[in-house]
Design brief:
Beta-lactamase; single chain; three-stranded antiparallel β-sheet
Length: 273
Amino acid sequence: FQVGLEAVAEMAQRLGIRTPLRVDPALALGASEVRLLEMTAAYLPFANGGLRLEPTALRQVSERSGGILLQHRPQPQPVLSPEVASTMNAWLRKVVEEGTGRGARCGLPAGGKTGTSSEHRDVWFIGFTPDFVVGLWMGNDDRRPLGRASGGEVCAPIWARLIRNLYRHQSPLGTFPKIPGTIGSSPRPQDSSLAWCILSGALATPHCPIIRRGTPERQEPCPLHPQPQVGALVCDTSGGLATRNCRHVVLRFYPGEGPTFLCPHHRGSETTP
């Protein structure tokens, strides 16, 4: 089945690639340079059923008093049919489950693709879960080769650790859109009697904060939560215990003992309830 170079380049643009592409046979080998942000955004439709969203660095601008001056409102644009997006989703999950992206296995539903440029000057991994799309690039500023490094060996494990850390503050775990009759629409049987930690993918201990039931990715006890976890509302700016004056408060879990100091930037008489 042949689609032609022009059709490939046009699809890349629909997915969000804005950098001009070399429309020649080398395009299939990745000969055109593309920015990391564009490439990462182009993977989003594979995770959400075929919708493209324009990346933005600002989600909200607010006044000191709390009034909102600017609120970013995403405008999803369909660029793939749900059936095509679901098939791509299944193929990219296979890359993580049993392909070159095995290092990105994190105990969560995830898909992605590794990348290694000529002479090992750049290594990539771009991947997604039901809630996040994250792109990772590594290389030298002076373009020196990285030895024998590859995206699967270097970037994928770092990506997995980053995703696990993101899910420390993300609950519940989302799900990929399911399109009946497409590849990957019928999940493999799960053992509902086992509890596993979504942060490590291993068998849950009594101290794991967020668990699921099913077949774990790893059969050993969770290495992240061998001891009790202490939950605390902390200021996202300082990491100290939140006061009533802290605007951005998050719930974080700490092994053993959490922070014992009040936020120094937003002093208040009481901590946030």
